[in-house]
Amino acid sequence: MNTTFSCVGCGKCCNDHHVPLTLAEARMWANDGGQVIVLVEGFLGNGLGLPLLQRDHAERRSVVVRSGAIEAHVAITFAAYNVGPCRNLDEDNLCRIYERRPLVCRIYPMEINPHIPLNPAVKECPPESWEQGPDLIVGGALVDQELVALIQRSRQADRDEVQTKDAICGLLGIRTTALKGDGFTAYLPEMGAFASVIDQVVAQPLAAPKGEWLFHVSGDDIAGQVLAAGAEVATEAPVNYTFISLRAA
Ligand code: SF4
Ligand code: SF4
């Protein structure tokens, strides 16, 4: 079935959505006085935490790190911390930085992850936005080639920048990840430090220290699996992060 779409400018996608940012966009966000949230998830070399179908995509956007005796993969997202309306949304639901808005703002409501098909039912866009406008998807393929190019750019940035983000995280003391599917660890770095560490790592990429990662998991059963695989589990209460569980309570 084909899908039509036309944005009706309701502004809902600019409320309560942490918008993933490229490194340059995160630096811009800091420069503008905004807050960035760092979201981290990982999986083990033996595949623990990794949905089989997503292996290729997940590996390409993650960095190989050490945890305990083994190698693990960690994916790091820098996102605009949007609780309530985005700081750039004006009273008329217009974006104050429209010309330089982040890549992901240009892509919504499309998905970045190639394994997640567009599902209008889970998007913020109201029904009327799907009942009008030009074709968005025809025969399963995205029609707008500019949008295709933006999605490719976003995926590429994810892959190209993960090493740099790992180095930035190392300098900021961010070294605890969640297990993919089990949750995320979420950090809210002080933005002055965040900006200067980005500048430092971009200027001298190889000088950043490496460090081992710990896994924060939701329960003893998963902790047992992570430890049995040879990786290290966080045992102290979190000091600089929050664990967001994805497990049903
Ligand atoms: S930067 Fe602009 S388009 Fe993006 S979430 Fe904020 S207000 Fe919306
Ligand atoms: S939620 Fe959808 S319709 Fe509303 S502003 Fe965002 S993209 Fe447009």
Keywords:
249 residues, binds iron/sulfur cluster, 7 helices, 3-stranded antiparallel β-sheet, 8-stranded mixed β-sheet, single chain, alpha+beta
Please explain how this structure is put together:
The chain is α+β, with helices and mostly antiparallel strands. It has one domain. Helices cover 29% and strands 21% of the residues. The strands form two sheets. Strands 2, 3, 4, 5, 8, 9, 10 and 11 form an eight-stranded mixed sheet that branches. Helix 5 (145-171) packs across helix 6 (191-203). The longest helix has 27 residues, at 145-171. The protein is globular and about 55 Å long. The protein starts with a strand and ends with a strand. The structure holds iron/sulfur cluster (2 copies). The site of one iron/sulfur cluster has 10 residues, from loops. InterPro entries: Puta_zinc/iron-chelating_dom. This is Zinc/iron-chelating domain-containing protein.
Into how many domains do the coordinates divide? 1
Indicate the structural class.
alpha+beta
Helix fraction, binned, reads 25-40%
Summarize the biggest pleated sheet: 8 strands, mixed
Low-confidence stretches: none
Order of helices and strands: EEHEHEEHHEEHEEHEHE
| Count of strand segments | 11
Q: Which ions and ligands are bound to the chains?
A: iron/sulfur cluster
Computed Rg: 19 Å
* Number of helical stretches of at least 4 residues: 7
Which whole number gives the mean pLDDT? 93
Distance between the termini: 36 Å
Approximate shape: globular
Estimate what percentage of residues fall within beta strands.
15-25%
Protein name: Zinc/iron-chelating domain-containing protein
Pfam family, one: CxxCxxCC
Organism: Pseudomonas frederiksbergensis
InterPro entries: Puta_zinc/iron-chelating_dom (IPR005358)
